[in-house]
Amino acid sequence: GAFKKLGQRGGQGAVFRGKSVADPLKEVAVKVFHRSSGSTRHQEKARREAQFTAQLTHPHVVTILDVNSDKGFLVMSFCEGGSLRDRLKQKKASLAQTLDMAIVLLRTLADIHEHGFAHLDIKPSNILFHHGTPIFSDFGIAVNQEEGQQAGTQAYMAPEQKRGQANRASDVFAMGLVITECLLGHPTRHIGQNIQLPPVPKGPKRWALEHLLRGMCDPEPTHRPQDLRELAQRFMWAQALPDSEAQGAVLLEQMRKWALGMGTDTAKLLEKHPIVAYLSPVDLKHRGGPPQSEV
Asked: What pLDDT is stored for residue 29 in this prediction?
């Protein structure tokens, strides 16, 4: 049948939109891997990407419906919402949309890592949407690391990945850049202490987001967050924090009064909670957090 090309031709292959043979009313995406003269690598790539995805049946990972390793193509579920790259070309993602997406994808990434894999090519064009649900796609590099761990997309590569030493922490770095790009409305190569979020009002929410993103994009992989479920939880806290500095100060005072009323032990536990640091730039700085911008 007729196929319509989706997006640009990538490093691994090209993706086309078509109809399912088994169900003509069902749309599918067909990924055709690049062929090399005299080589069977396109066959191996198709087979291994299908094998990987089969090991991780997940609502936020693209579903492989069929594979033809001889001809080097995969048939995948079609995501009608397009990619995050498509969305960012049209308009900047809202803060609420970005945080909702980040929380879902960080939890998904935790599941991927727990299965023993790293994606290694996280970028807006590899994040798809189906009825509003974000979905990771394109695991060609994750299952083909023997072909060179420097593979990936330069703009989203962590420093160690560029040195050929990619690991799971490289995914955390790339996710940090993707989230930052959504909030800023344009790509950024700022890492570590340099991430600032002028579009977000100065206050607890912004302090928390800058702190989390600077940690994710730290040049040193061992300094990045290791527990992605906890990281997702912290983004949920950031989502609930007040926007303004004044609101944060009032909330912090109320929390401390409540904790003191519950007893000294509760008050001590509260002071150790990350939310207390996020509510006060002084507390955040004293706990080793990066200095906050004054933009």
From this structure: 84
Q: What amino acid occupies position 199? A: P
**138 conformational bin, left if phi > 0, alpha if psi -120 to 50, beta if neither:** left
Which residue type occupies 197?
A: L
The DSSP symbol for 25 reads: T
pLDDT computed for residue 87 by the predictor: 92
CB atoms within 10 A of CB 236: 14
User: What's the average model confidence in pLDDT over 267-279?
Assistant: 88
Among the listed residues 23, 100, 111, 121, the single catalytic one is 121
Q: pLDDT digit string (tens) for 27-86? A: 888 888 776 544 566 566 666 667 677 677 889 998 888 877 777 778 888 888 989 999
With residue 209 as reference, give the H or E element that holds it: helix 204-216
Question: In this predicted model, what pLDDT tens digit does every residue of 119-143 receive, in sequence order?
Answer: 999 999 999 999 999 999 887 666 4
Count Cα neighbours of 39 within 13 Å in the Cβ-side half-sphere.
Answer: 9
Longest Cα pair distance anywhere in the chain, in angstroms? 76
Both structure tokens of 295: 């933009």
Q: Taking a C-beta distance cutoff of 8 angstroms, is the pair 76, 68 a contact?
A: no
- Decide if 173 contacts 217 (C-beta within 8 A): yes
> Could you confirm whether 243 is annotated as catalytic?
no
Q: Which residues of 116-150 are buried (b: 16+ CB within 10 A; e: fewer)?
A: ebbbbbbbbbbbbbbeeebbbbbbbbbbbeeeebe
Predicted confidence at residue 13, as pLDDT, reads 72
Q: Give Cα separations from 86 to 18, 50, 97, 98, 123 (angstroms).
A: 19, 25, 15, 15, 12
Q: What is the pTM of this model?
A: 0.82
By the 8 A CB rule, do 177 and 156 touch?
yes
